[in-house]
Design brief:
Blueprint (H helix, E strand, L loop, with lengths): L1 E3 L9 H9 L8 E3 L1 H4 L7 H14 L2 H12 L10
Parallel strand pairs: 1-2
Length: 83
């Protein structure tokens, strides 16, 4: 596990698993924060989440890694959209 990377999904989230397999997201280490989290994209939109995870992994540098950590620590993407 890493600090920055795609969040792990649950075994019963079949649509998200399928979308992530298409984009080879399972080939990288999972993390606790990333582009989807700081942009408040949750698992209710599996295609958008998988696309965002793929874009993050494609563009990930030391600078963006630190940026996602900083944004998370400052509270960006905090909270659950489901009420």
């Amino acid at each position: 596990m890493s600090l920055v990377g795609p969040r792990p999904c649950l075994f019963n989230q079949h649509e998200l698993i399928k979308e992530r397999e298409k984009r080879d997201i399972f080939g990288v280490r999972p993390g606790i924060t990333g582009l989807a989290q700081v942009n408040e994209i949750d698992m209710s939109t599996p295609t958008l989440l998988a696309e965002t995870d793929a874009r993050m992994m494609q563009d990930l540098t030391v600078r963006t890694y630190c940026r996602y950590l900083f944004m998370t620590l400052m509270g960006k993407g905090r909270g659950d959209r489901v009420q």
